[in-house]
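tokens incoming
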């Protein structure tokens, strides 16, 4: 396998997250994020990052629209490295996919499950990514993805209330146990809905002392403190999975 750097790209519905990965030392050189409106800056950002050299390859996952996809493909051309979009599959990197139609599972959820499998190989995991949407996915200790939930992300919940009611503002309130004003009631309701769904999904695995919830995504910090379950925060679990996929792909390509 080439020891050259690999670039991983996770394009969600709000932001493009990127990371440069050193496969020889198995560590990140740099990570960053751009709003979808800033995708054109990707080549410049990545080139300016610590330890940059032309990547041997780029592995990405995308759940955003065609415009974002086309812009990223242009960026990959500018960086002079081949780009491979990873899709959800029936099995990959030690994870098997329990979805009725494996390809229907969001490619970001799939990569996050692979990241979880790598970081907690022996444990039953609840894999939570809190972004535009919040996803709550169950991964058993043998690597089987058993199914999961899609909720509006915490910001989307607040936005939906503001857009579809006459009297509710776009609230930025703090969390309160028993809110006594509208802003705190909205903010706390959205956070409790999310935390409650996570804790409910954790219940079936809670008896296993190794069971853990892996929490990632840009909105994770809003409710992490509310969760009363074993928790590990991972800065970007999707990128962790993409790095494992990129290494596996590079091995396959070099032996083909
Ligand atoms: N600087 C920021 N810009 C945009 N969203 C942010 C920022 N900081 C935190 N967030 C939160 O992160 C969420 C986006 O997280 P992210 O994991 O990038 O989502 P996605 O994968 O859907 O693009 C937003 O909905 C918001 O709650
Ligand atoms: C659920 C999602 C919208 C999450 O997207 P994100 O919050 O990361 O932008 C995305 O994973 C998706 O479009 N999934 C396809 C449907 C599915 O997973 O069943
Ligand atoms: K998500």
């Amino acid at each position: 396998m080439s020891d050259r750097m690999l670039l991983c790209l996770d394009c969600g519905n709000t932001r493009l997250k990127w990371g440069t990965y050193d496969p020889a030392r198995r560590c990140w050189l740099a990570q960053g994020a751009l709003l979808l409106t800033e995708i054109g800056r990707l080549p410049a950002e990545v080139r300016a990052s610590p330890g940059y050299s032309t990547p041997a390859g780029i592995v990405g996952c995308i759940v955003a629209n065609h415009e974002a996809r086309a812009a990223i493909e242009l960026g990959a051309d500018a960086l002079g490295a081949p780009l491979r979009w990873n899709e959800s599959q029936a099995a990959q990197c030690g994870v098997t996919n329990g979805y009725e139609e494996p390809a229907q599972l969001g490619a970001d959820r799939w990569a996050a499950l692979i990241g979880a499998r790598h970081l907690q190989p022996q444990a039953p995991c609840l894999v939570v990514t809190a972004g535009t949407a919040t996803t709550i996915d169950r991964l058993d200790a043998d690597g089987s993805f058993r199914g999961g939930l899609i909720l509006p992300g915490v910001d989307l919940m607040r936005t939906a209330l503001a857009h579809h009611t006459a009297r509710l503002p776009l609230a930025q309130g703090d969390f309160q146990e028993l809110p006594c004003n509208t802003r705190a009631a909205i903010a706390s309701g959205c956070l409790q809905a999310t935390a409650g769904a996570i804790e409910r999904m954790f219940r079936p695995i809670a008896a296993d002392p190794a069971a853990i919830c892996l929490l990632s995504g840009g909105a994770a910090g809003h409710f992490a403190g509310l969760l009363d379950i074993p928790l590990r925060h991972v800065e970007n679990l999707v990128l962790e999975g993409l790095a494992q996929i990129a290494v596996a792909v590079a091995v396959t390509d070099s032996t083909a």
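note: The first strand starts at residue 6 and ends at 11.
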